[in-house]
Amino acid sequence: MGLKRTPLYDEHKRLGAKLVEFGGWEMPVQYSSIIEEHKAVRENAGLFDVSHMGEILVEGKDALKFVDYIITNSASKLKNGQICYTPMCYKNGTIVDDLLAYRFSDVRILLVVNASNTEKDYKWINEQSKGFRVSVSNESSKYAQLALQGPKAEEILAKISGVNLSEIGFYYFTTGRINGIDCIVSRTGYTGEDGFELYFKSESAVVMWRRILDIGRSYDIKPCGLGARDTLRFEACYMLYGNDIDDTTTPLEAGLKWAVDFDKPDFNGKEVLVEQKEKGLKRRLRGLEISRGIARHGYKIFVGDNEVGYVTSGAKSPTTGRFLSLGYVNKEYSKRGTEVEIEIHGKRVPAKVVKTPFYRGSVKSGK
Amino acid sequence: MKKYTKTHEWVEVSGKNATVGISEHAQDELGDIVYVELPELGKEVKSGEVLCSVESVKSASDIYAPVSGKVVEVNKVLEDTPETINKSAESDGWIAKIEISDLKEVDKLLDKTAYNEFLKEEK
Questions:
Q1: Of A234, A245, A325, A312, nearest to A72 (Cα)?
Q2: Domains identified in chain A, total number
Q3: Is A201 part of a structural domain of the chain?
Q4: pTM of the predicted structure, to 2 decimals
Q5: Region B102-117: what's the mean pLDDT?
Q6: Is residue A231 part of a domain?
Q7: Residue A178 is part of a domain; what is its CATH number?
């Protein structure tokens, strides 16, 4: 099967991007250098094509009730125009995907899901919807999505925005025109910096992309690829599905308790999560700092002869210069300051449990 | 004269020592290099075996010994500034020096023209 392409594929080629396969899509991993793009977002602004993300619309009388049944966080507690980050769990408490739920009204909620999981999620959500008065539709191909991120994002976007961006709070959205194009605009992102995500019809993607880069030029904006997106989210300790969380881990183990609403009468995974909460967790996702070297996904963590966990993500943090990882560590070794070892290329390297997130940027809230 | 391998290392022989690094093409493919795990001094390697590894933002890549011999020097500069490889892969960004055990192995390596031909074919 051929790889899918976003409406901006030709733009990426034109800008000399290196293209890679990601979740069934042919996507730009970098334009100039991952580290330069990373810095642009931390210091100024970066523009990401994230049109590969999936959009699943839930509509109908039971929309709120249904969404609250499939996610762990609470859509009922949102105002119209508000967004929540949430895991979506299987009955056994492990994670189908993590997503953003945009509440338009109590009968219309848009779920923005990971590109590589869109088909799986759509199927799962459909199966779960039996008995609820809702219709579920996969709108993914209709939308282009751009993420404009960085401390200068608002100033840049304000120049072409028909909506008052300063009135959009963190994790809120509105609809209106940007560059004359109808958009959903939210103050959200995956970088740890302030910024916006825009959803609009695919046909307008090229015009919007070029215009933002054009206005952003005097602010030293850079087009950014998936490489920088990953290092930025890693420093902010945002979860990457398939790395840090998946269908073998639960939201509580991953430290996402803040996105689980135990007050809800029932939701997928509740029973298991309540039990985990009451009995205590066996392992926790933790930040790890290594003396030297890069510990990547799947590398094993040891204390003495005992294997006590595994690394889920790792990098040399471009902003701090530290060698850092995220990884699941057995409870008894998960306290900050605990010394462990990580096996890197057959050698044990000393590491210790450290505070997360690794870096706090200009984002308006910590979560 | 520089010689190359199909796994994108370069070698420059001076007397019985070979200076080894990765090719300009390889650094460009890897992107930003953030860590170099240098080989241990005195390590004995056979040609084609893993000499050490170079890590870019996205991945770890094994570097293979182009010739057999003993590691007699490593480029300590790369410990703190691994990006030297991005800036100067085929000069300042050298990785190690190997005392060659069999000079005949050098003849089997590709010269610049043959390597460039190989890169074209690989595409």
A1: A245
A2: 2
A3: yes
A4: 0.94
A5: 95
A6: yes
A7: 3.30.1360.120
